[in-house]
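seq as requested:
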Amino acid sequence: MRDEGPWFGTSMTVRGECHRSLTYRTYSGLDMRKHQEAASSSPAPLLLAQQLKEEEEEVLMKLLLLLLLQMCSCAESRCFCQVTGDLDDCACDVETIDGFNNEQLFPKLQTLLESDYFRFYKVNLDKPCPFWTSSAHCGLRDCAVKACAPNEVPEGIRSPSHNKYSAETDEQLDECEKTQHLGAVDVSLSAETREALLDWRKHDDEAERFCVTDDEESPDSQYVDLLLNPERFTSYRGPEVWRIWNSIYEENCFKPYTVRRPLVPDSFHSSSGSEARTFYRWLEGQCVEKRAFYRLISGLHASINIHLSARYLLDDSWFQRKWGHNVSEFRTRFDSELTEGEGPKRLRNLYFLFLIELRALAKALPVFQQPSFQLYTGRAEEDRRHKELLLHVAQLARSFPLHFDETSLFAGDEKEAGKLKEDIRLAFLNISRIMDCVGCFKCRLWGKLQTQGLGTALKILFSERQIEALPAAASQRRPSFQLSRQEIVSLLNAFGRISTSVRELKNFRTLLSEER
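struct tokens:
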């Protein structure tokens, strides 16, 4: 309430959740006496007095109704008021993404991810943390991951020769390459030289990657059924979790230590509005590539928090274990008042991440259209149907009308752009290694999968020339661009997580609005 003086009345302001103000005027005692004096000298004093009284009562009723509506819908407004309209650095808006994802893409993508090819993911959960001595692993029941027995995984997936192509095609390609690259030079090459050539090719493949992929070849890796080990709340929290995220943000997002991120938990220091303004001034002053990198990590962080809020352990009794939406947990993570204005910004970054991974899926369509490309599990009819569904999903992704324009990244001086791209690749590679420091096995599983999926998306986006060079028809030459099964599974499942998060926001909007 703000007093503007007796001559102007009292201005009663109800502040909306997006810092919009609605102002209604009532009258102070002096104002009322002046109006009464005016009324007594008018030709119709009783009529004017009655009119003033009715106007005041109407204003008070509107004010009361507004306050009531504010109390009922404030949580929804505080979480979502800024999650609308155009996205920064994009030619797209939140509403277009919501409609496209929720009505067209999400149902088909979920059906695809339930197939055998995409539900089994190979991962090594026993790798030690490469950066610090990690404490004992989480002993909570919900942190555990149940690995598959060998007979539970289709033979076609377990067979290494089917990682990229069918066995017959792979053998033909290998023989062709041996003839062209080895025999054409010197048919008497030693085994050591042959091994060196293979190592060089492996090094070239590694130079294109944005994340660690050694789990695929590790003898300690196991297959995990993602449908039986869903991403959800595990009670894994506290200083160790914040150490993971702080290491990601503070050491790998190109931010100087003198610029503090908003809402950093620190018992010796409280965040302030001036720090938030300083941070965002710094961020806006960065090149578009570094801004995009930060927003991708923030969007991934937001997506994970949405999953944990949407699949929360609501009831843990002798009779049942019930998982579902925890609105209070969602508000804790995204309510603008409870997060000092950060929550809605993070949700907008989720939509930016959606656009990046959607664009990568669309650009991967020529890879999936290669005659030699198969989703091989050993069940021919099932594999054929699932490849058709994958092509349909990728074509649907390509039909999206407002794609992110990746050509705006790494433009300008070729040498400087190349160095910046390599810096970003190494930073993301480092983030993928940090996932081995996560103490909760369930969280580690989904963290590794989602960082690998995003890394694969970045690899696709910045391999345009190699993808364009793919042959339109069957060829005996090895393709200029390849994706391993591990990369394909992580790409689709990671995007499935982002798509699910966007869909869950619709559910949380509804639940928050029903709190009235």
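The first strand starts at residue 2 and ends at 3.
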